[in-house]
Each structure stands twice: as C-alpha cells, then as structure tokens.
Amino acid sequence: xxxxxxxxxxxxxxxxxxxxxxxxxxxxxxxxxxxxxxxxxxxxxxxxxxxxxxxxxxxxxxxxxxxxxxxxxxxxxxxxxxxxxxxxxxxxxxxxxxxxxxxxxxxxxxxxxxxxxxxxxxxxxxxxxxxxxxxxxxxxxxxxxxxxxxxxxx
Length: 154
Known about the structure:
By secondary structure, this protein is an alpha/beta fold. The chain is built from six helices and four strands; from the N terminus they run βαβααβαβαα.
C-alpha cells in the first residue's frame, strides 16, 4: 500500500480538504487498494474540520464531516511513502522531525511543478475556502501522474 500524508498547520482546513480530494481521485481511478491518503497537522488538537471546509467538500460530493485533526508524529513521517505539505514552513517542520526523509517530503506546489504555498483559508469565508479547494484540486491534478507512477513502483 502506497501511503500519502498531507500536512498543514492545524489539520482543520487545507490538509483534510486535500486528503478528501485526493482520496476521491484515488477511488475514481480504482486505486483504493493501492493508495491510502491521510492528513495531519504541525499544531493540531483534535478539532473537527472547519464548518466552511465541511460545506465546500459537501458541495464537491465529498465529506470531511467526521474528520478530527491530529498532530503529525515522527513515526508517521517514517512510514509514509510521500509527504505533501501545504507550505514551505510545514516542509521545514516535517524535515526537522524526520531529517532523513528529504527525498519524500515536498510542498504540494513543488510536487506539482509550481512554486508558492497553498493559501490558508482559516477564519475566512466559504468563498475563500472554495478558492483554496480549487487551488488544491489543480495542484493535485497536476501531481496525479507522479503519484500514480510512484505508487506503481512500490
């Protein structure tokens, strides 16, 4: 099983939305038995996904309604095959916890062949969350062939 871990700050907005979107792509491609998707946060405390994230994902036919944020642990980083962070600072934090994992930790934008961070919609309007989801969808779509290729090598 190829394990992908998506990381943001509090694991209530970006990474759970990205995980739901990517899990939907995996399911649609019939790869649920080969790829697993999880999310965690650098500073998470067991909170539900934000109401705006829940609403935007429901509008996409997906759900983060039962999501509870969780803190990323060094052992999770060690067992993941691919770690995608929402920002460069998240990547630095993950590398600080697992310095030997540099070859499998990327920002989502970097893995998609772009630069920059995924903007944090925390505390924003549903429109800001929708814009974040659109950015996540685009970056995940651009990353999809790389993900499938890596999963096929495991």
